[in-house]
Sequence to fold (187 residues):
Amino acid sequence: MAMAAEDIAALIRAALPDAQVTITDLAGDGDHYAAHVVSAAFAGQSRIMQHKAVYAALGGRMGGALHALQLTTAVPNS
Amino acid sequence: MSQTQTRISEIVQGNDVVLFMKGTPLFPQCGFSSKAVAILERLGVEFASVDVLQDMEIRAGIKDFSQWPTIPQLYVKGEFVGGSDIMMEMFEAGELEQLVAEKGVARAG
Fold:
C-alpha cells in the first residue's frame, strides 16, 4: 500500500496551492518518505496546526496508505 | 465521552509527561517511537509510556483524542505536544526544554 512521491506532493499542493513541497524517499522503497512543506498559509499557526493542515491535505492516508512520512513545515522567508 | 476516551484522559491528566508509543522505551517497535524515546531521554525528564500495541482501544482512541493520525504522541501536563517530527523540531530549537521547564516537569534522577 505504498504511495508515489508525486502523488503525495500533488495532494499537498491541491490543498495548499502556494506550497513548495520537497519529498525525499528515505529508504528507496516507496514507503518511507520525508516531506518538507513551505507555505505562507502556515504563518501564525502552531507546529501542530501546520502539520494537521498537511495531514488533512493527505485526506486520511497518513497512518494508513502512508506508513512513514517524516514531516517538517515552514513559512517562506520574507 | 466514551469509556476509552475517559481512560485516555485519565492517563494524560495523571502523568506529567506521557508518551503513547509502539513498544516500550527499552524495546520500541517502530522507528518513530524509538526517536521519541531518545529525545525524552536526552532531555532528561521522567516520563510514563503507554504501549498502544498492547491495547487496541487506546491505539484507535488516541487518534480521535488528539485529532492526530499517527503514533507516537507526546503529552506534557495534560496538553498534546505532537509526534516525533514536532518533538525533534522543538528539541533542536530548544523549545522542548523550555516547555518542560515552564511546566515545572521533574527531571530524571
In short: The longest helix of chain A spans residues 5-15. The mean pLDDT of chain A is 89. Chain A is about 30% helix and 25% strand.
